[in-house]
Amino acid sequence: MIEVNVIRSNDHFEFDVRVEENGSETQHRVTMTRSDYRKLTGGRVTPAQCIEAAFKFLLDREPKESILSRFDVTVISRYFPNFREELPKYIQS
Question: Where are the domains of the chain?
């Protein structure tokens, strides 16, 4: 289960994300600019839905314990160059 809570919502979004799997959980703090949100989603989904999709993408590639505890959503592309191209598939699912 992925739970996304919006902490701050202005030009810079901030989210508290809790991931629960197999009886354990991890906590993450994620930031995203409004500009990056538009680039990633075209405004088709909420910012929280974008972050949830980003975590689904990450969890398909690594265990929750390997996900950084604090990061900006743009960092994902450094580790996974195909993130921007693949994200729409996770938004639709």
Answer: 2-92
Task: Name the residue among 44, 43, 30, 18 with its Cα closest to residue 74.
Answer: 30
Tell me which long-range contacts 44-51 makes (C-beta under 8 A, separation of at least 24): 44/91, 45/91, 47/6, 47/9, 47/13, 47/15, 48/4, 48/5, 48/6, 48/15, 49/4, 49/91, 50/87, 50/91, 51/4, 51/15, 51/17
Series of mean pLDDT values for 10-residue runs along the chain (93 residues): 94 96 96 97 95 98 97 97 96 77
Strand ranges for the chain from DSSP E: 2-8, 12-21, 24-33, 70-72
Q: What is the tally of helices (H) and strands (E) in the chain?
A: 4, 4
Q: For the chain, first and last CA: distance in Å?
A: 14
